[in-house]
Design a protein that fits this description.
- By secondary structure, the chain is mostly beta strands.
- Helices cover 0% and strands 44% of the residues.
- The strands form eight sheets. Strands 15-21-20-17-18 form a five-stranded mixed beta sheet, with no helix packed on it. The chain has a four-stranded mixed beta sheet with strand order 3-8-7-5, with no helix packed on it.
- The radius of gyration is 45 Å and the shape is rod-shaped.
Length: 303
């Protein structure tokens, strides 16, 4: 029997006298380079996989949760180069190959922070934007412009809007969402008292009663009578000290901060003034006496 020395191994051959072959290197394939989008995950499996014959070692080890697993998942965070060393368990021969990972940046734009509005209000959603990207919002029914990075939303109830952003060149896409919370609205309203004289027939200032007719879950009230006086009662009474037309307003607010205001005019007439003329002022015996009244102020006709 002959002995041949090949490398650092000694191989003994049979009687045919031929020199031995060097052990084969492990054969496997992995891509030389991969391009992914920021935030995207991709699996890198070598082909073929034979864990009985071969062992696998990925590096740098700190970026892998299990660097000895043949299949690894890479998340697009930054450009990097990784290495896979495959070792033949029988012949103790290894080969290392590398993979270059290129990460395309996330498209520009954002759905923005969550918003809170009152029923019937509108709010702007979305932030940023670039002409290099396309934008698409859903649901579209309560949006003014669903193809714009920033649009006006007017939902009737709590709504989650999802924004899809896609880079025109790289094809990378990104999903973001914003929630618009809608609080129940309140609506201020009252019917003003009918026009009144400043004083009654006895000369007393008239007391006017105001009644709230607002709708919704009202927490607080603020009446402004237009003469420098206010009230926080729901149904206040008020005395006007002068005649004239007053712009009376009612502002209401809910516990969630939704508010509403309503304004109407209250008219107060001046008190008529009467000057009487008697002619003649005195008379002896039967005869005609003339009475004449001169009325001022107030609003004709008089009775």
């Amino acid at each position: 029997m002959k002995k041949w020395i090949v490398g650092v191994g000694i191989f003994i051959i049979g009687c045919d006298g031929n020199p031995p072959r060097a052990p084969y290197l492990p054969i496997f394939k992995i891509p030389e380079s991969i391009t992914i989008c920021e935030g995207e995950e991709i699996q890198i499996p070598p082909q073929p996989i034979d864990t009985e014959r071969y062992s696998y070692q990925w590096s740098p080890e700190e970026i892998f949760s299990n660097p000895t697993s043949p299949v690894q998942t890479i998340k697009g965070e930054k450009d990097l180069e990784i290495y896979l060393k495959v070792t033949d368990r029988i012949n103790k021969i290894s080969i290392t190959k590398s993979v270059k990972i290129k990460v395309n940046p996330k498209p520009s734009g954002s759905a923005g922070d969550d918003k809170v509005i009152c029923g019937g209000e509108s709010v702007e959603i979305g932030e940023g934007g670039s002409s290099d990207c396309t934008y698409f919002w859903t649901p579209q029914e309560t949006l003014d412009n669903p193809d714009s990075p920033i649009t006006l939303a007017h939902p009737l109830e709590d709504t989650v809007y999802t924004l899809t952003i896609k880079d025109k060149e790289t094809g990378c896409s990104f999903l973001d969402s914003v929630t618009v919370f809608v609080n129940p609205p309140v609506y201020a309203y009252f019917v003003p008292p009918a026009p009144q004289c400043l004083k009654d027939i006895d000369g007393n200032y008239r007391i006017l009663n105001f009644q709230d007719m607002s709708t919704g879950a009202v927490l607080s009230y603020l009446w402004d009578f237009g003469d420098g006086n206010i009230s926080e009662l729901k149904n206040p009474s008020h005395i006007f000290s002068n005649d004239g037309s007053y712009n009376v307003s009612l502002s209401v607010m809910s516990a969630e901060g939704c508010n509403s205001a309503y304004r109407d005019v209250v008219t107060i007439f001046p008190v008529p003034t009467i000057f009487s003329i008697i002619s003649p002022e005195s008379r002896c015996g039967p005869g005609e006496v003339r009475f004449e009244a001169d009325v001022g102020g107030g609003t004709p006709p008089y009775t």
